Task: structure prediction
Amino acid sequence: MTIGILLAIFAGLMLGLYALPEKFTKDFKYENTWSLFFLLTMFVVPIIASVTFINGFSDVFGNMPTAIWIKMALTSFLWGIGVMMWSKAINHIGLSLGFSLFIGTVILVGSLLPFIVDGLPQNNVLLFILLGIVIVLIGVILNGKAGLIREKDEEKQGGDAEEKNKKSMTTGILIAVIGGLLATGFSYANAAGATYLHEALKHYDNPDWVTGVAVMFPIFISGGIVMAAYFLWQLSAKNAWGDFKTSSFGKNFFLILIMAVFHYAASALFGYAASKLGAAGNTVGYAIFNTSAVATAIVSGLITKEWVKASSKARLALYGGLACMIIGIVIIAYSKSLT
Result:
């Protein structure tokens, strides 16, 4: 149990840091950065990792029941839409708040979805899980309030009106929440495929950690389809293809590759962590994983001075939201000791 919790926390740290390199790219439009990122993280990295690490790759997936393929593919497609909206939300409202609202929504809904597949745990365990999730919800609300206060603070200090319109806080919050709702498809897809894949992999002498890699393969490929279509359209609509021709391309590619590897590895590590947590592992692991990511992203946002113009009131709300999320994750983790 302890190993599963620690792995989920570490996976969350990786997810919370994955978007940080994006702040240091140069001469790329939003469309350039994120189209390259999604190409790498949804197709290139998962395919290379899966073919390299999974013994019996063709047989394992070739024999997977059609019903499981359909469940994983459809919910992963929704997850893909949600992640795409997530990247847009970060562009609107920044790393810390974008993570907070998006992943907060994911935690609230996504942590409950595995119950549909795995069934409800014991009453005392369920009580603590729900209590932890409610406290996380309070944290999400406080973080949303912090973002709105920050917007007002920045308006008082002046700034370019057009730029502010592009990064409307209200629009960004709406995008983040809707994206979070759709992205909960990841949780369901993981729960739907994990049991079959874990058993199938045993027949080919795969170590337990490979389950995380295997589960992510159909999730990332299915989720990547919608992103590929969207960004091909956006690159043409925004005349952004030419922006790939820059002297900074090599540096940008390296930074985006780091983003892609961290994003994929975090998800695969979560899949393994959930399997180590036993009953209700998808729910508990998902909550811990995502809450850790939020906390990491908030700290990253503070370090990169996203909140430098925010008032003490805005920061107090942000810190209060972070504290609630940490308390919530501790309560959810404690629920595992009751099984």
